[in-house]
Specification:
By secondary structure, the chain is an all-beta fold. It has no helices and six strands. The strands form three sheets. It has a two-stranded antiparallel ribbon. The chain has a two-stranded antiparallel sheet with strand order 3-4. A two-stranded antiparallel sheet has the order 5-6.
Length: 124
């Protein structure tokens, strides 16, 4: 490449993944076989926010009434209604008052129950 000259290259591609990192990060580097005394400007990284979004929704149901001192079970449905994009790292939070709700437990299958900390494990 001659002194003072430049070259422009365009690279394109489609992100066809339904699970893509947000933002999309891309790094380009340049090198030469001749000594380059300023290496700091030989790499450029850019981040492009992902325009695709997910649409999470949550619905919480419970019995119409409960008798004091008996068990109450809340059912919480978390859904991703996006047409094509997968939500990553989904967690559901529900802080129950420890003075009211004793022995807080949760289940993902209504069979196995574990101690509830106020946050679900990653759902996806």
């Amino acid at each position: 490449m001659a002194y003072g000259s430049s070259a422009s290259i365009r690279i394109k591609g489609y992100d066809l993944q339904t699970v893509a990192p947000d933002p999309l990060v891309n790094t380009a580097t340049v090198s030469t076989t001749v000594t380059d005394p300023v290496l700091e400007n030989n790499e450029e990284t850019i981040s492009t926010p992902l325009g695709a979004t997910v649409d999470l929704s949550i619905v919480k149901t419970c019995p119409v009434e409960v008798i004091s001192g008996t068990e109450i079970i809340y059912e919480i449905l978390v859904e991703n209604t996006s047409d094509i994009y997968t939500a990553i790292g989904v967690r559901m939070y529900d802080l129950l008052d420890a003075n009211i709700f004793k022995n807080q437990r949760y289940s993902l299958d209504s069979i196995n129950w574990s101690t509830w900390s106020g946050a679900s494990p990653k759902l996806i």
